[in-house]
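Ticket reopened. Same input as before:
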Amino acid sequence: MAIQSTISLVVMMVVAVLLPFVAVAKTRNYNFNIQLQKVSRLCHTKSIVTVNGKFPGPTVYAREGDTVLVNVTNHVKYNITIHWHGIRQFRTGWADGPAYITQCPIQTGQSFLYNYTISGQRGTLLWHAHILWLRVTVHGAIVILPKKRALYPFPKPHKEFTLILGEWWNVDVESIVSKAQSSGESVNTSDAHTINGKPGPLFSCPTKDTFTLSVKPGKTYLLRIINAALNGELFFDIANHQMTVVEVDALYTKPLQTKSVVIAPGQTTNVLLFTNKKTGRYFMAARAFQDAPLPLNNQTATAILQYVGTTITNSSFITMPKIPSINDTLFASNFRNSLRSLNSIKFPAKVPKSVDRHLFFTVGLAINPCPTCINGTRLNAAINNITFVKPTISLLQAHYFNISGVFTPDFPDNPPTTFNYTGNPLSNLQSTSGTRLTRISYNSRVQLVLQDTSLLSTENHPFHLHGFNFFVVGSGIGNYNPNKDPANFNLVDPPERNTVDVPKGGWVAFRFKADNPGVWFMHCHLELHATWGLEMAFLVENGKGLDQFVLPPPKDLPKC
Ligand SMILES: *[C@@H]1O[C@H](CO)[C@@H](O)[C@H](O)[C@H]1NC(C)=O
Ligand SMILES: *[C@@H]1O[C@H](CO)[C@@H](O)[C@H](O)[C@H]1NC(C)=O
Ligand SMILES: *[C@@H]1O[C@H](CO)[C@@H](O)[C@H](O)[C@H]1NC(C)=O
Ligand SMILES: *[C@@H]1O[C@H](CO)[C@@H](O)[C@H](O)[C@H]1NC(C)=O
Ligand SMILES: *[C@@H]1O[C@H](CO)[C@@H](O)[C@H](O)[C@H]1NC(C)=O
Ligand SMILES: *[C@@H]1O[C@H](CO)[C@@H](O)[C@H](O)[C@H]1NC(C)=O
Ligand SMILES: *[C@@H]1O[C@H](CO)[C@@H](O)[C@H](O)[C@H]1NC(C)=O
Ligand SMILES: *[C@@H]1O[C@H](CO)[C@@H](O)[C@H](O)[C@H]1NC(C)=O
Ligand SMILES: *[C@@H]1O[C@H](CO)[C@@H](O)[C@H](O)[C@H]1NC(C)=O
Ligand SMILES: *[C@@H]1O[C@H](CO)[C@@H](O)[C@H](O)[C@H]1NC(C)=O
Ligand SMILES: *[C@@H]1O[C@H](CO)[C@@H](O)[C@H](O)[C@H]1NC(C)=O
Ligand SMILES: [Cu+2]
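Engineering reply: fixed in the latest deploy. New output:
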């Protein structure tokens, strides 16, 4: 008895001592009102769809382990959904957001409460609309801080800032997209790129209020850079300053010093910036990276890095960085290929060393007959020659409630025909269409090789996988060789991410463990290509364990 109470006393004392050090998870509540807001850029004023009237939208802050509740209420004429890009959504696919994949849209006048817990993740991600092209203005940052008292695996920054790279269109995006859809045409490019919503002063009709970041000399800053653009892969530079990449897609990397950052839509990159000047104003600049001969917006968006105490006499004395040229494939591929997982004791790279399921998908464009279109044909895109067709109720609902006739779980593991994928284009550019899913058993180790094709044109395709992070074990130019290329795979410290570029005329290989049951979308994050059908989905089966099945849907899940 005495011994027992002594033991329990000791236990209580230990608990009392430890308690203050145990991080307590919180619930973070947000209200997102989808509403119109009048905004002026480049001498054009128009009403844009926003969250709470802001462009870019509000930042969602949380700590690792927190539960996030976002009540989204739709006050506009469009249907809406919000995707929490990069959040794993363990068992809570209902809160993932892609319209007709995991939920029906929130219709005008309706609300939906997105409810998810952030487990085992910390860093910078983004949220954005996942229906139509609304993410052009409906997007914002997600900043997940480490647990209380947990440290960054790099020197503590003096301050942190978020830089959201985006696009500005003078025209009404939804109306030109729907016109292009029915005519079969391509869609024009944006009129400007933006940094935190502003194109900067280098335009013939500049916005007066350029985004300016004030810094002190001799400090280290953390910049959380997000590419929220619809269609533009970007270079990001700061004049006369180096950056050190420490994280991509909310996963720590080995420090990588660089002059420029290469960032595709859907990707995030955290860099440390050491302010090694005493005074002055320096442009931070974003400009397209595009090495295919396609229409593009080639102008430079700028913001200003300004040292405190700099006397501003003449705004023309802002130093401009030397940005890599628009088609600098070499710089882009060197940058991508230099990224490595941190792979420390605390943050090990758990790369699947063996593979249960080998998948090989071709990705590229297509041209299909279209009686109502201008030329009788339309542009499409296809994975393994299948142009994705969105269903009219969500795939996750169809899966969970056993509703037949919505999809078939027979997406092919390999392309239907073998050809010289990156050689002379085939004469037949047609694709098939369908709503076909790849069924994966729980906890399988999957390897997926994405192979660009020369059908119509080779191009970079930033592919995003929902519900998982993956290890980018290899990439190359030309055709993937299953006999030779795996020998060069990095299975030790490859970068881990949620969005990766399939290089123009090349391939990328990644691995992940299918430890998250549900239906998970995978698609090109160039909105143009996604619209053309460069999309598919995985169906990850439930496991046998008590916490290995999809949770029931929330009561307020929107109906179709
Ligand atoms: C979400 O907000 C709407 C509009 O304010 C409100 O009617 C609804 O009750 C809220 N939902 C929840 C779950 O709080
Ligand atoms: C959020 O979801 C969890 C289950 O994942 C549930 O227990 C909780 O009640 C939900 N919260 C709200 C406010 O609906
Ligand atoms: C129609 O075909 C012509 C000639 O091939 C081409 O230049 C034009 O871009 C096409 N237009 C559309 C809408 O596909
Ligand atoms: C694209 O832009 C050009 C030039 O500004 C314009 O003439 C054309 O109508 C636009 N096309 C679409 C589909 O918006
Ligand atoms: C951008 O494109 C325009 C029109 O195609 C061209 O005249 C201009 O030289 C280009 N600018 C740069 C910096 O490449
Ligand atoms: C700023 O400097 C430039 C280049 O020296 C000069 O042409 C311009 O007139 C100056 N502007 C003002 C407002 O002082
Ligand atoms: C990049 O574009 C420039 C100017 O348009 C051109 O001179 C150069 O050959 C291109 N480089 C590559 C690698 O295509
Ligand atoms: C769907 O089918 C599976 C397997 O037959 C069954 O276990 C599950 O209970 C069914 N779900 C619903 C919602 O009917
Ligand atoms: C594929 O096409 C490329 C470019 O035309 C050529 O260099 C290569 O030899 C071809 N590969 C095969 C296996 O035919
Ligand atoms: C794709 O499918 C279409 C329609 O069945 C067919 O004509 C074409 O040859 C296929 N292309 C490839 C590359 O498999
Ligand atoms: C909104 O979504 C519902 C359900 O899918 C659909 O019936 C309706 O036509 C959509 N409304 C608009 C304006 O697109
Ligand atoms: Cu693409």
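The mean pLDDT is 94. Helices lie at 2-18, 173-183, 329-338, 395-400, 527-531. Please confirm and we'll close it.
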